[in-house]
């Protein structure tokens, strides 16, 4: 069954430029949140998303065999961010002093309001996440927060399907055991 993203992707490959705009509009927020998992630099994430879509447009004919556009975009964004961070680290080696930009007070205020509103939920989630290994945390996030299927998770994390399933089951088991004992 083809998803809305798959249909937009096919239209884009067939020459409909507006379908790439639709993909961008529909997926930008999800990609942005996904990118923030790898860096807190919001501008870097925005730049990498923009670069990803420009590259997609420029290399349209090379993407004929993409099975899942959502996973493809996530992997592409992750790779761009990682490459940018590696490049940035190399540059920082040779810079003796860093100029820090002033904190954007409006963004900081907005973030504070959001944190206050969600503190209760965050505490519960933190309690669960402390029980999990880093790999289990990623699988849980991809499955329950990003709503990815296990096939997509295994592709994104470069592990086989059974491993993704086992990791998820162990994470759920840890959370259940902890909360069952606590009650």
Short descriptors:
75% helix, 183 residues, 2 domains, 9 helices, mainly alpha, Arc Repressor Mutant, subunit A, Rna Polymerase Sigma Factor, Chain: A
- Total tally of structural domains: 2
Note the run of SSEs as H and E.
Answer: HHHHHHHHH
Query: What top-tier CATH class of the largest domain fits best?
Result: Mainly Alpha
Radius of gyration, in angstroms, nearest whole number: 19 Å
Overall SS class: mainly alpha
Strands, helices and their partners?
Elements (H helix, E strand, L loop, with lengths): L3 H10 L3 H19 L6 H17 L10 H25 L11 H13 L1 H12 L3 H12 L4 H8 L3 H22 L1
Can you offer a commentary on this structure?
The chain has 183 residues and is an all-alpha fold. The protein has helices at residues 4-13, 17-35, 42-58, 69-93, 105-117, 119-130, 134-145, 150-157, 161-182. Helix 1 crosses helix 2 (17-35). The longest helix is centred in the middle third of the chain and has 25 residues, at 69-93. The radius of gyration is 19 Å and the shape is globular. The termini are far apart.
């Amino acid at each position: 069954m083809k998803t809305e993203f798959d249909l937009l992707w096919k239209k884009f490959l067939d020459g409909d430029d507006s379908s790439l705009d639709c993909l961008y509009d529909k997926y930008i927020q999800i990609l942005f949140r996904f990118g923030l998992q790898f860096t807190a630099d919001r501008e870097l994430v925005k730049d990498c998303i923009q670069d990803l879509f420009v590259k997609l447009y420029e290399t349209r004919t090379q993407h004929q065999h993409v099975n899942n556009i959502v996973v493809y975009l996530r992997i592409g964004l992750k790779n761009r961010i990682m490459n940018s961070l590696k490049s940035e680290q190399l540059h920082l080696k040779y810079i003796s002093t860093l100029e820090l930009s002033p904190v954007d007070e409006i963004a900081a205020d907005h973030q504070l309001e959001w944190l206050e509103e969600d503190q209760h939920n965050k505490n519960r989630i933190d309690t669960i996440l402390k029980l999990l290994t880093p790999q289990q945390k990623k699988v849980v996030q991809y499955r329950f927060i990003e709503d990815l299927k296990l096939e997509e998770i295994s592709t994104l994390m470069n592990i086989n399907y059974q491993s993704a399933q086992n990791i998820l089951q162990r994470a759920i088991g840890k959370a259940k055991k902890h909360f069952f004992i606590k009650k």
